[in-house]
Amino acid sequence: MLSKKIEKALNDQIALEGTASFIYLAMASWCDKEGMEGCAQFMYRQSEEEREHMMRLVHYVNEMDSHAIIPAIKQPSKEYDSAQKLFEEVYAHEQKVTNAINKIVALCYETDDYTTLNFLQWYVEEQREEESLMRGILDKIKLIGTGGQSLYYIDKELNKINAAQMAAAQNEEGGAE
Prior knowledge:
0% strand; Ferritin; mainly alpha; single chain
């Protein structure tokens, strides 16, 4: 069973992951509306990934004879100023998630909860990858620029990232069989 401190921290993380899923879903919808197919596909996939992160936590908390609390999610923004601003917001949110995971890891050390510490190692690595990916996308956007024609190239770059991530996921599935 989890300590009350760890249970609360994990439930807070469930809320943070669920919020991220909805924020990214709203961003995907905005990208679709703006005709940025590559960005939209990328954000739809990110939204689903965040939901999966939330579900891992839900299952873990319940497996540990505690109670996962499903949060209410505040409606995310419907409009974004630009693709660059959108990805700056994503990067900032990923940094917030990383900080929250790190705090739970520290709490695990404080409370000698090595089972949860072990469980969280996947999240630590995942957040390193997420931050690196978002930073790379922002670097590309800065190189390409943000004018009207630049959006076309930004969208193409996101399509390349989508294709690479889908291929990696298929390779993982094929290797697991």
